[in-house]
Q: What sequence folds into this?
C-alpha cells in the first residue's frame, strides 16, 4: 500500500513538473518574443518563470529523482558487509529525517511570515513561492520515513 501511494505521489509530481516546465518554457518564450521582436518587454513573464522554476525544482527533486541516481561517495558503503550497509542506510536516512522534521517548523514559520508580502508584479502572496520549500520538505520526510520502513523489513537488500 505504501509503495502504491508513493508511486501515485511520484506520478502526480511528474505530471506537475512536466506541465510546470512546459508553462515555464512558454512564459520564457513569450518574454523573449516581446523583448526582442516587439521591443516591449513584459514584466509578469519573468516572475511567472521564477515561481514555476522554484516549484518544479522543489517538487521534482523531492519525488522524481530516485535513490542512488545522484552523485555520491560510496566507497565505504560498497566495501562493507550487507548488514553494515543496512545500518549505514538507516543512520543516514534517519539523520536526514531528523534534520527535516526539526527544520519544518522554521520553514512553516517563515512561510507564515511571508503571507504579508506580495510579489512585485503579479501581487501574489509570497507564500505561493515559499510554500514550495514546505512541500519539498514534507515530501522528503514522507520519502525518508518510507525508506526507513522498507529498510527495516525483510528483503531490504532490494531497497534502493
A:
Amino acid at each position: 500500500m505504501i509503495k502504491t501511494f508513493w508511486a501515485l505521489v511520484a506520478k502526480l509530481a511528474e505530471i506537475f513538473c512536466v506541465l510546470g516546465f512546459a508553462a515555464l518554457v512558454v512564459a520564457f518564450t513569450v518574454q523573449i518574443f516581446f523583448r526582442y521582436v516587439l521591443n516591449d518587454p513584459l514584466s509578469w513573464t519573468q516572475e511567472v518563470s521564477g515561481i514555476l522554476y522554484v516549484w518544479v525544482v522543489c517538487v521534482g527533486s523531492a519525488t522524481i529523482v530516485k535513490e542512488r541516481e545522484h552523485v555520491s561517495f560510496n566507497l565505504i558503503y560498497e566495501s562493507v558487509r550487507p548488514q553494515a550497509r543496512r545500518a549505514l542506510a538507516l543512520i543516514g536516512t534517519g539523520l536526514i529525517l531528523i534534520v527535516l522534521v526539526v527544520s519544518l517548523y522554521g520553514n512553516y514559520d517563515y512561510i507564515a511570515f511571508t503571507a504579508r508580502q506580495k510579489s512585485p508584479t503579479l501581487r501574489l502572496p509570497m507564500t505561493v513561492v515559499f510554500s514550495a520549500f514546505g512541500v519539498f520538505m514534507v515530501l522528503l520526510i514522507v520519502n525518508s520515513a518510507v525508506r526507513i520502513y522498507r529498510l527495516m523489513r525483510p528483503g531490504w537488500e532490494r531497497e534502493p
Summary: Residues 2-158 form one domain. The helical segments are 2-37, 44-63, 75-79, 82-113, 127-152. The chain has one domain: 2-158.
